[in-house]
Amino acid sequence: MPAEKGKPTREMPATKTTPPVKTPGPRKTVRVASLLSEDVISIVSPAPEKAALIESMVRGLCEKKGLGDPQPFLAKVFEREKKISTTLDTGLSLPHNPRTEREPGSPAGTDPLSALTGIFASLAVIPGGMADPNEKDIPISVMFLFLSPDRSEFFPVHLQFLRSVAGLFKPALIAELVKAPTPAAVLEMIRKAEK
Predict the structure, then answer these.
(1) Among 9, 19, 105, 134, which is most buried by a count of CB atoms within 10 Å?
(2) Which H or E run includes 93?
(3) Does a structural domain hold residue 53?
(4) Pairing of β 140-147 and β 120-130
């Protein structure tokens, strides 16, 4: 019923038949610096082979973050690496676990990735560059490895995080990171870049 002239309109309170409309809030963005600490950042020189560095990073991440046996995580990351290169033309490599295809509504798997509570990450800065066996023309200067929950409801966060990381590690930041003397300096540069 329209308001009478001169009288203010008022909102009708929600009833059992007219629930309040929920408007979606802003999507929470995971900040890269919040996932990193000095103990999961390394400056690697000379560079090993890519597979050896990935293995070292997964093992270190599992040990430092209490994730348990690294083998299931390694298997998943290497499974993803076989499908398509995770190295971008900026010199950033993004090894991570793939998403398991499941029918909608099916339960999560029983592997450790399904049990993760959030994203776990590790970073390696490679000042001299490292060869990528799949992308011979692009030396890797920074490797950002991450593990994320393998559950369908987490997949949008996983994709958004991938975009955030790729957008953060631009050539200018990478050029600064390869000059950083310590993991603490690397972390500080990333914090400043995310402000």
Answers:
(1) 134
(2) strand 92-93
(3) yes
(4) antiparallel
